[in-house]
Specification:
It contains 7 helices and no strands. The protein is extended and about 75 Å long. By secondary structure, the protein is mainly alpha-helical. Helix 1 (9-38) packs antiparallel against helix 4 (72-98), helix 3 (58-68) runs antiparallel to helix 4 (72-98) and helix 4 (72-98) crosses helix 6 (121-146).
């Protein structure tokens, strides 16, 4: 249709092809960005962050601070900062992807909502509860550890909520 209207190859690419490929391209950018933030194993095996610190990523720095220098609060704070960066990038890209209603028209979304089957609510909430406890406990532990002082890391019995919140790890991470 664009050729019949007299559009050139560049105009077809710019105004037809790229807008149709935009959700796929944004999804690819999101996946690649998340993979770049997860990059650890290749650097650990091949270079150990060297020469100097030229191949050191945020994940590798978090590993070094947490497991070699036992600065667990600082490494937890680095992990939380990294997670917030990735979530911010994902939120921006998903907002961009979903802003133009590429996937569903409003009527189709209503049809999808009405097709849901009624299931046993108790079983669903039980499974969701178990999943949330298993999933969120390590996250809670990481946040709790980021606020602890050094002496509270390895106490027995473990301290889930620090007695005094310490923000030094976040000051160092930012």
């Amino acid at each position: 249709a664009a050729q019949i209207d007299g559009a050139s190859g560049w105009q077809i690419t710019r105004w037809v092809v790229i807008p149709l490929l935009a959700p796929i391209l944004l999804t690819i950018v999101l996946i690649r960005a998340i993979e770049d933030f997860k990059l650890f194993d290749i650097i650990y095996v091949l270079t150990h962050g060297g020469p100097g610190m030229s191949t050191e990523t945020l994940n590798y720095l978090t590993y070094i601070k947490g497991f070699k220098f036992f600065s667990l609060g600082y490494s937890s704070a680095l992990s939380i900062v990294q997670m917030l960066i990735v979530l911010g990038m994902a939120a921006l890209l998903m907002k961009r992807i979903l802003a133009k209603d590429w996937y569903y028209k409003k009527g189709e979304i209503q049809k999808l909502k009405t097709k849901k089957k009624k299931n046993n609510v108790f079983v669903i909430f039980l499974l969701i509860g178990i999943f949330l406890i298993v999933t969120l406990f390590p996250f809670f532990w990481m946040i709790s550890t980021s606020f602890k002082i050094r002496g509270e890391f390895f106490t027995y019995p473990p301290i889930f909520i620090p007695k005094r919140f310490n923000f030094d790890a976040y000051r160092a991470a930012l």
